[in-house]
């Protein structure tokens, strides 16, 4: 028997950062995101050898341990270990023997939510294998709890919910870990137009998002007015983005992205840098009307809105910078599991 799972990565279109505590707890956050056809994959093969084997094929990492009720958190494949420890603690109350193999279509630090999406995919595989009574909100909250509470990893809440639910969603984040996912009924032609005009560019760099997020958290805790006001503006942009998408005013997305990027850079140090600024200027000079870094900032993927046929010039200009323009499609399906 083999159990498989896959969960989609996401593009954070507006409001990114407002899902991070303590801002979301104190002021309420809002984000608009959309999942794309790039995935985190997990495969579980139950065994009878009394061992646990974890394999991250994309990172060329492998870990083997006796099947105990808790694996040591020591910096080696801790995401998978943290999930296993929680599954045993909350559900099985006994050790399991298996081989877990994972792969992610984007590298860590990409800004597409790869780490949290991988957590959702692994949880999905365990849910399929053990027939755990978990719905979408349950899976997403469990993924968040494992990352932020059990493993102490800095970050927000949107990635876990995007990967679990899939599609285009307007998400609201409140105190006491309350999250409301509002699926948007965007007409198919407007999504086609957005997909056609939105250029996704990998800068060939990754960044440690936790350090940027920690600075953002500190700015809120210390009542840094400049940073907090920027987050207020980003939340407003998510509402605007939702409205223009639903109304089919797709070409206004460029200006919203541009305004959002200006505000996002005010949230914390390290969100932008000279390399990212140069890439941004290059795309704008080639015909883009706006763009932003996907995720916390500092590197990873950037996205640019290039209306009409300007995307060809934008792509040509970006290709000269040493990064990579990535092809993608939107997907409306979240975490998916199956057994063979």
| CATH hierarchy, class of the largest domain | Alpha Beta
Query: How many DSSP-defined strands?
Result: 12
Give the domain tally: 2
* Name given to the CATH architecture of the largest domain: 2-Layer Sandwich
Tell me the number of helical segments per DSSP (H or I, 4 or more residues long): 11
Helix proportion = 40-55%
What is the string of SSEs from the N terminus onward?
EHEEEHEHHHEEHEHHHHEEHEE
Q: What does this molecule look like?
A:
This protein is α+β, with helices and mostly antiparallel strands and 340 residues long. The chain folds into two domains: 3-185 and 331-339, Ribosomal Protein S5, domain 2 (2-Layer Sandwich); 188-326, Alpha-Beta Plaits (2-Layer Sandwich). It is 41% helix and 24% strand. It is built from eleven helices and twelve strands. The chain has helices at residues 23-27, 78-92, 114-130, 136-150, 158-165, 188-197, 209-221, 225-247, 253-264, 274-285, 310-319, and strands at residues 3-14, 29-46, 51-56, 61-66, 98-104, 168-173, 179-183, 198-202, 290-293, 301-305, 324-326, 336-339. Strands 1, 2, 3, 4, 5, 6, 7 and 12 form an eight-stranded mixed β-sheet that branches. Strand 6 (168-173) and strand 7 (179-183) form a beta hairpin. Helix 2 (78-92) packs parallel to helix 3, helix 3 crosses helix 5 and helix 8 runs antiparallel to helix 9. The longest helix is centred in the C-terminal third of the chain and has 23 residues, at 225-247. It starts with a strand and ends with a strand. The relative contact order is 0.19.
């Amino acid at each position: 028997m083999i159990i498989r799972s896959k969960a989609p990565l996401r593009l954070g279109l507006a409001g990114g950062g407002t899902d991070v505590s303590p801002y979301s707890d104190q002021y309420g956050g809002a984000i608009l995101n959309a999942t794309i056809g790039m995935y985190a994959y997990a495969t579980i093969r139950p065994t009878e050898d009394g061992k646990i084997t974890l394999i991250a094929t994309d990172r060329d990492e492998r870990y083997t341990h006796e099947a105990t009720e808790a694996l040591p958190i020591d910096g080696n494949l801790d995401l998978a270990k943290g999930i296993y420890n929680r599954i045993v603690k909350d559900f099985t109350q006994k050790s399991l023997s298996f081989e877990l193999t994972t792969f992610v279509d984007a590298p860590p630090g990409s800004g597409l939510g790869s780490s949290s999406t991988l957590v959702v995919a692994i949880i999905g595989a365990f849910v399929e294998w053990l027939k755990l009574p978990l719905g979408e909100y349950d899976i997403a909250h469990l993924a968040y709890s494992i990352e932020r509470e059990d493993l102490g990893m800095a970050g927000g809440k949107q990635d876990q919910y995007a990967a679990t639910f899939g599609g285009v969603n307007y998400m609201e984040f409140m105190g006491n870990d309350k999250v409301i996912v509002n699926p948007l009924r965007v007409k198919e032609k407007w999504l086609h137009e957005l997909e056609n005009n939105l250029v996704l560019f990998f800068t060939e760099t990754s960044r440690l998002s936790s350090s940027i997020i920690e600075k953002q958290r500190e700015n809120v805790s210390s009542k840094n007015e400049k940073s907090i006001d920027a987050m207020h503006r980003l939340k407003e942009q998510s509402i605007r983005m939702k409205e223009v998408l639903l109304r089919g005013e797709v070409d206004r997305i460029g200006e919203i992205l541009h305004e959002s990027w200006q505000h996002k850079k005010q949230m914390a140090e390290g969100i932008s840098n000279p390399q990212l600024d140069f890439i941004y200027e290059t795309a704008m000079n080639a015909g883009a009307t706006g763009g932003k870094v996907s995720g916390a900032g500092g590197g990873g993927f950037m996205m640019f809105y290039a209306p009409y046929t300007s995307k060809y010039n934008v792509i040509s200009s970006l290709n000269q910078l040493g990064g990579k323009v990535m092809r993608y499609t939107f997907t409306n399906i979240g975490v998916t599991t199956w057994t063979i």
